[in-house]
Amino acid sequence: MLNKILMGVVIVILIGAFLPGIINHTHSYSWEIVQPANCTESGLRSGKCSCGKKITEIVDAIGHTTGPFQDNAHPTCTVCGENYESKGLTFALTQDASACIVAGFGTCADKNIVIPSTWQDKPVVAIAENAFSNPNYILYQIAIPDTIKTIGESAFKNCAWLQRVVFIGQSTLTTIPRYAFGYNGFLESINIPATVTKIDHCAFYNCQKLNNVVLPSVLQYIGDFAFSQCNSLRTITIPSSVTHIGYGAFSPCDRLEKVIFQDSTGWKITDRDYNQVKIQLSTPQQNAILLTDPYSYGGCILDKK
After folding, report:
1. Parallel/antiparallel/unpaired status of strands 122-127 and 100-104
2. What is the pLDDT of residue 1?
3. How far apart are the first and last CA of the chain?
4. Which of 21, 36, 116, 286 is most buried (most C-beta within 10 Å)?
5. CB of 197 within 8 A of CB of 175?
6. Is 51 a residue whose pLDDT tops 70?
7. What's the pLDDT at 58?
8. Residue-wise pLDDT tens digits, 223-233
């Protein structure tokens, strides 16, 4: 009987000695990749602790890796080489439910967004007003598919980090609406679709770093303050198709050095008091001075007779 009691005491002592170590043990795993993750598919890894415990965990897909978007080209992953489209954007149906409209960022965390051309087997035909207007979202590049026919006002206004906009394929867009890309301080480049006939008021207002703009050969209308305060613009060509340049469209653009009118004849120039002004559109350098001066040509409206 005494031996049993002594044995029990020994067991209790041993448990007391080792139990704190067991209770306070923190698992530290050595990991081994079972199945590697790739751009679109999850992987697996297994871990083993010194105590003998083993676990298996899912490794998230690494996502596509992007480089600089190229004009008219569908962005491809620099790792797998595949075309890709962003996931998690929010959409709404058109009134007749035949197509979709991009409504916003949703859960998408991409810093380089590629808008899909279809959603739930329906074409994506429009971008809603203010859809991407969020200065707190880090967005560097955006690619717009050629299914997009309309862009809402202020759709990309105040995208504080946006640097590049490309239109994929053969876009049929006809209008860049009011404030569509306004107040984007880092926007450097945009390939305006060849089908655009109207750039509305303040469309690129205060895009301080915009330095590469080619106006389409079918463009007819440039709205008030359309490119106002685009202070990195150095040269621009006004196509012969243009029939209206609004008040302050390029005023002030401090570094604009050369404005080339493909057709400098037939213009009616009206000042802010609606008085007709006689100004000769002469050299590209003189045009630039006049176009950016808010007290002369820059403060006028131009219409082709």
Report:
1. parallel
2. 59
3. 121
4. 116
5. yes
6. yes
7. 92
8. 999 999 999 99
